[in-house]
Amino acid sequence: xxxxxxxxxxxxxxxxxxxxxxxxxxxxxxxxxxxxxxxxxxxxxxxxxxxxxxxxxxxxxxxxxxxxxxxxxxxxxxxxxxxxxxxxxxxxxxxxxxxxxxxxxxxxxxxxxxxxxxxxxxxxxxxxxxxxxxxxxxxxxxxxxxxxxxxxxxxxxxxxxxxxxxxxxxxxxxxxxxxxxxxxxxxxxxxxxxxxxxxxxxxxxxxxxxxxxxxxxxxxxxxxxxxxxxxxxxxxxxxxxxxxxxxxxxxxxxxxxxxxxxxxxxxxxxxxxxxxxxxxxxxxxxxxxxxxxxxxxxx
Amino acid sequence: xxxxxxxxxxxxxxxxxxxxxxxxxxxxxxxxxxxxxxxxxxxxxxxxxxxxxxxxxxxxxxxxxxxxxxxxxxxxxxxxxxxxxxxxxxxxxxxxxxxxxxxxxxxxxxxxxxxxxxxxxxxxxxxxxxxxxxxxxxxxxxxxxxxxxxxxxxxxxxxxxxxxxxxxxxxxxxxxxxxxxxxxxxxxxxxxxxxxxxxxxxxxxxxxxxxxxxxxxxxxxxxxxxxxxxxxxxxxxxxxxxxxxxxxxxxxxxxxxxxxxxxxxxxxxxxxxxxxxxxxxxxxxxxxxxxx
Lengths: 299, 292
Known about the structure:
Chain A is about 80% helix and about 0% strand. With about 300 residues, chain A is mainly alpha-helical. Chain A has a single domain, classed as Orthogonal Bundle (ABC transporter involved in vitamin B12 uptake, BtuC), CATH 1.10.3470. With about 290 residues, chain B is mainly α. In chain B, about 80% of the residues lie in helices and about 0% in strands. Chain B is built from twelve helices and no strands. The chains are: A mainly alpha (about 300), B mainly alpha (about 290). The interface between A and B is large, with 55 and 60 residues.
């Protein structure tokens, strides 16, 4: 276990600890990659939560797994598998969402697609016997051992994704909040939805190479859900979502560096704790406001 | 010939009963659009089993306790015991993080060190069941099916029109909570047979096909069960004939194949129906135009 090898414990001197945190190149790469991933996930995740596409987001991230397995089996570079499968998955999911067959049919189709993806992934892994020991890292990823080339590629994808979202942000918010009115005003709702899914697939494919297929989801949904609890204003919400994603990623990486436990555990636990705190806090504030509003009427 | 092997008999018996439970519960999962909740519960089952393995409890007990608790928590968090997807998503992401933690501890303690225990929980080991495991899973599947059939009528009412059902005195919230608990039971039960990650295929695909074919509830329940059992038999037979193909992948492949066939068949039928309807309207003049 590489994590065990670097376990040194805290010196409790913040400057020394920060210094040690960036003293290894692999840790610098991990911090760079984590920052890019968190930024991208924070932006796209805000729209995922707004559009109630959590299930779709999770399915896309699962589709990355057979992509990687298929690429390994065929002897192709992993990135080809990730991008190819995620793009096809996004198109299929776009077709499911657009057919307007009602909520229950949609949820059944998405679920079946995800089950198929997992079945294919396991099939490919079984056909390629050697990979089995690497299955865990395929599913759960590793922040260690990221190369500077990967960081560069990640940066390119992130810039492409975020600039697409920035360009279509206004119509996309409109189409997500009220699809019917947006359609009547001439916004290409379907095309926007499909474009967003493709971009989401792209960012999920890129992210899952670092975080593993299962954990993309944590950065995508939880910080964004927390931001949506705090504000409904789009600009502020996206900024909050990015800020929270960055915060939990940095803290998670640092905690993982100074302990023996995996970074995925820290990132998910921190973001879930924040979400629960915000929900509880908002519940308390809401109750107080409700009683305050009620009191003068009684008097 | 296939039935001469004991592992094959065990797999078929367990698979059949698990499929019956999944088909019945899956029908309501799809009806209530709660496939995502089922998905989350299957991952919670994975974490529960690993947690029990790490903490030294009985894996099966850990699996059931954690998954059923997960169902209850999701029911309590959501409105009207129909947990909304963002809440589920956040809980779910955290569960995965916990799963990773337990997996890393488990893999470290494992002398082999390659974490195959985690893989077994994720993808199941239906060909490796012993007689005791078969007995347990058959009993639990029967229990889950009986419980579901007992609440089927009010649950159907509550799922189709919650407001009217509540006005008529049907305990909608309790039913929703009970259903998620039951879903937790089935998720735990199925994840030891087909694996936590593949349970979704048996929940969503046969029921999706049944809903596509009929709107009548009891016929739909029956169809969903038949499809689920058929997928298990087909998948296990395929995997027996071609031993390189893993059984859980084949079972899910069969289920999704049935669903895809149903979609194609009904789409073709509806397409020809709507073409007929359209030509009929056109013959009557402007009626078709105004409808469009």
